Amino acid sequence: MIFCFSGTGNSRYIARRFAEALKDTVVDLNAKIKAQDNSLIQTGKDVIIVVPTYAWRIPRVVSEWLTKTELASAECIWFVMDCGSEIGNAAKYNRHLAEQMKLRYMGTAQVVMPENYIAMFGVPEAEEAVKIVEKANPDIEAAIARIKVGQEFSAPRNNMYDHIMSELVNPIFYQLIVKADSFYASEICIGCEQCALKCPLNNVQLQNGKPVWGKKCTHCMACICYCPTKAIEYGKKSRGKPRYCFEKLELK
C-alpha cells in the first residue's frame, strides 16, 4: 500500500506512478490528517511512503500520523522523498521511524522535483518545471524497479552537511520559520474557500468571506499555490513569484 502526503502535487504524481506500476492503492494522507483519522488500516506486507522533504526530513505531520496509526499486516517500509535539491540525512530519521513502527526499513530514495517552497525559494516557471519532472522520471522508475523485486534502496548521500541540515537546522527551522503569520489574502480574493479545503491541518478558516490563518501550519504551500486568483501572499517573499502546482503542468 502507498501512503502519500502532498502540498502542491509533486508527491501525488510520484505516488500515482508507483500505484500504476505496482497495481497498488494510494492512501491520501492529506485527507487522513485533515480528518484526524488514525483508524487501523489493512495494508498488506509492503508499505511505501511518498512525501515531500520539509527542512531535510519528512514532514512532521506525516511521522506523527504514522506513529499513531496501526498498519495491519505491514512488514516492510520504503520511503520516497521528493525535494527541490536534497533530502539531507533524512534516511537516519526514517530508519528510526521504521524501528518505532516495528517494520523492516527498506531505505530512502530521493527524487528531485520542481521547487514549490514559495515562502523562501524561487519557483520555476511551467516550462522549466516540466524539464525537471522529465529528468526525475528515470529515478522514479528505478525506485519502482527495486520495490518490484523487494530490494532495498541504495543508501543516499550522507556527509557532514547532510547531518547538519537534518539534525541541527531542521528543529530550528520548525521553531522559527514554519508559521502561518505571514500569510494574507489581498483584495482580489473571491472567497472561493479553496485555501481552507486544501489545508491538511484545518488551519485556514473563512471569516466574512476572507481566509484567516491559525497557529497550526506545516508550510505545505497548498493554500497559496492553489489559489485561483493568486490572492494569497506570504509577506513580501511571494510577491511576483509564479505559483506552482503539479496539475497545471503540461507533460508529454
Automatic annotation (TrEMBL):
Transmembrane segments: none annotated. GO terms for molecular function: iron-sulfur cluster binding; metal ion binding. This is Flavodoxin. The keyword Iron-sulfur applies. InterPro entries: 4Fe4S_Fe-S-bd (IPR017896), 4Fe4S_Fe_S_CS (IPR017900), EFR1-like (IPR047964), Flavodoxin_dom (IPR026816), Flavoprotein-like_sf (IPR029039). Residues 180-208, 209-237 form the 4Fe-4S ferredoxin-type domain. The keyword Isomerase does not apply. NCBIfam families: ferrodoxin_EFR1. Keywords: Iron, Iron-sulfur, Metal-binding. It comes from Lentihominibacter faecis.
